[in-house]
Amino acid sequence: MSSSGSSFRKRVGTRVPFILGTKPSIQNAQLLTSTGVPSLDTFIGGGIPIGTLFLIEEDVYGNFAKLLFKYYLAEGVISQHDLHVVSQDVDPVQMIEDLPKPIEKANLKEGSHFGPKDQMNIAWRYQNLPSVQTEPDTDFGHHYDITQKMDPAQMQKVNITYWNADEIDGTHLNGNNAYYEELLESIKQRIKNGQFYSEDSPKKRNVLRIGVQSLGSLLWGRDSTNLILFLYKLRSLLQSSYCICLLTIPTHLIKKISDVHRCQHLCDTAVKLESFAGSDRETNPIFKDYHGLFYINKLPAINSLCSHVPGSFDLAFKLRRKRFSIEMLHLPPELQETTQREQDDFGSVMLGCSNPRSKTLDF
Amino acid sequence: MGTPLSAALGIDREGLVGRFLSVNEFHGSNANFVIASLMVDSLKRSHGICLISLHNTFGHYHHVLTKMSALNLCELKEQNAQVETVELISELREHMYCEDECPHDLWDKHNKISVQQLFSIIRDKVRKLLVTHPTVCVIIDDASHFLDMGVSLRDVLSLLQYCRTLLTTFSGVSLVVLTHVITEDDSNLLANNVAHVADTIVNISVLKTGHSSDVTGVMEVKDKQNNDASSEKWNVSNLFHFKVMDRQVKLYAPGTSMLRT
């Protein structure tokens, strides 16, 4: 069949512009960009949709949320996206200087946690079976080595702006918190000057990554009403723009749980980190492979009725030197007799106040 | 003619005309499919739609309706004049950028919305739609964002009460109000007040016991118009399980989702 006789015409050109570090969603053609953690991208449906708000509810000490925040910024630098870094708790300039170094794909495989397979002598039939893959495999996004800093020359290629509240008087203006008003103004001007709206026609289309660290902490004032108003206005600014915003909020510092839920509703994606640090779970053998639990509270439904449904909602995260990964939570196999089993065995001969091993009374 | 959802709401025969529908979206759930289904139902009946959007962009509704029913919402708005919109979330952005000259005085200089002005805009749009269409459906999605914008609960309730008067001022007008409900929040009080005066109440919530691959959530429908005390259906709430897919919504009686798929 000759092609000239067919009425089929290949569609020339696409409405989705090509921007480095982005890809169209297979579900709704929405442009996606990476969070900086490839496994997280997979669980939230491929990445962060452009024009949306991404909320991370911080862990109690904020260490892992800070790390995710750095990965997000580092991914922006590697993808040569514009950055707008906001923080009152730490110096945003220092944070950019401390960004982790990306790992080459080849080096990553060498450092993989799946070590060389042992030769199986008895259960040899299982030798070539693939191991259980708890972490999804993807080519989108990069992994980063937290022990090494990113090359400063790489950062100079990117347009980075900073915002901290050093020069702002925290007094209230017209009932609104001055910090939120000033931050909103800076984001507004950044979007406008960079021509990031869809109706703008810049020479080269790019993405603006806005990162706000520890929003709503004590340094931002105690009133959650201003935070909610700020989020609604930010949502209105980001819609129909080539911008994404990642916010980390220490929700455990917010008094009313209803305000936390309101923040989740105003953001398009909401996830929560629960670190084991300082809790009983840190020493629990069940969770020995992980550093904390990862909750997906909300996923975006952009241009669609339903949102992406991940394979599992029981997720945990672990941090290694060259990889921060989010995996499906699996309990470790029962390979040896546990303390529980020993107690069960001694249970039948145990007296009321005696130690089963010594056979003498404790008092 | 109607969708499965309109049958569940009891509007498959006569449509939504003259009714006040309250849609309560409990936190964790998404009632967007109710709004989309009602829009499809109204447009297929050649009713006019006045959409006041506070959560999503017009583009979102356009894409959803294109997938659900191949209706081109942009065309219906621009060419057929069947759809009128007040995109408050987009207009807030425009207002934030305009420093001196603003298109209309919907917001004051502190970005506080004027509910009186908003109502007069809605009324004018309804009046305009009624010239070409005998029936008009006013949809507010989602009313809880008025509270986020700093409007007091009293003012939001006044606005909704004024919108309710449209049902009696003009014949052939219906009103749908979606509220995202968060317990221990003013939105809960708002939803209760709206439900108190609504003819039909639709509660959308997630499954209490967790996630399911067969069921997205629970829909409870209370029809207060069927108020004949002698009827068996008096004050009865109907419970459905629903599964939302990209292009359609499936409704099931509780426990039957596995049987039908």
Tell me about this structure.
- The complex is a heterodimer of chains A (363) and B (261).
- With 363 residues, chain A is an alpha/beta fold.
- Chain A folds into two domains: 22-112 and 132-330, Rossmann fold, CATH 3.40.50.300; 332-363.
- Chain A contains nine helices and 16 strands.
- In chain A, the strands form four sheets. A nine-stranded mixed β-sheet of chain A has the order 8-5-11-12-4-13-14-15-16, with helices on both faces. In chain A, strands 1-2-3 form a three-stranded antiparallel β-sheet, with no helix packed on it.
- Chain B has one domain (15-201): P-loop containing nucleotide triphosphate hydrolases (Rossmann fold, 3-Layer(aba) Sandwich), CATH 3.40.50.
- In chain B, helix 2 (32-44) crosses helix 3 (58-69) and helix 6 packs parallel to helix 8 (153-169).
- The mean pLDDT of chain B is 88.
- In chain B, 39% of the residues lie in helices and 23% in strands.
- Chain B has 261 residues and is of the alpha/beta class.
- Chains A and B meet through helix 6, helix 7 and helix 8 of A and helix 2, helix 3, helix 5 and helix 7 of B.
Q: In summary, what is this structure?
A:
Chain A has 363 residues and is α/β, with parallel strands linked by helices. Chain A is 25% helix and 21% strand.
Key features of this structure:
heterodimer, A: 363 residues, alpha/beta, Rossmann fold, 2 domains, 9-stranded mixed β-sheet, 3-stranded antiparallel β-sheet, 25% helix, globular, disordered N terminus, B: 261 residues, 10 helices, 9 strands, P-loop_NTPase (chain B), Elongator complex protein 6 (chain B), ELP6 (chain B)
Number of domains of chain B: 1
What amount of the residues of chain B lies in strands? 15-25%
Strand order of the largest sheet of chain A: 8-5-11-12-4-13-14-15-16
Estimate the helix proportion of chain A, in percent: 10-25%
Low-confidence stretches of chain B: none
Number of separate domains of chain A? 2
CATH C-level label of chain B: Alpha Beta
